[in-house]
Amino acid sequence: MDALTVANEVAPYVTAAVTAYGTAVVTRTAETAVDATAGLGQRIVQRLWSREENRDGLEQAIEEVAEDPRDADAQAALRVQVRRILRQDAELVAELARLLPARAFTASGDGAVAVETNSGVISTGDGATIQR
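Above: the chain's sequence. Below: its structure in token form.
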């Protein structure tokens, strides 16, 4: 996965952890996780935090979300900071990608299709004719 994809994937976990723990998210122990999402977010934040050069911007973004977890602008600033950090550290991108749960694809209903990538035609129409 590339840095942008990983940043977008980890952002909800980071936000959940900051919402659950506030600024203490970087110092809490893993055993005190409220739930799986916040626990994973906490581990992600701690890995981001472990690189000292990342701390200033990350700390400010965490503080803003902790002050008002519902503030969409603060959440966006945190996502931007995470993205900025990951664009500079391919090793961290790979490490965080390994932490993420496997993606599950669900399709339901008539003609529904769940696809991660597709290089061909997908047709669910009745009596469809596909010509090449």
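The CA atoms of residues 13 and 41 lie 4 Å apart.
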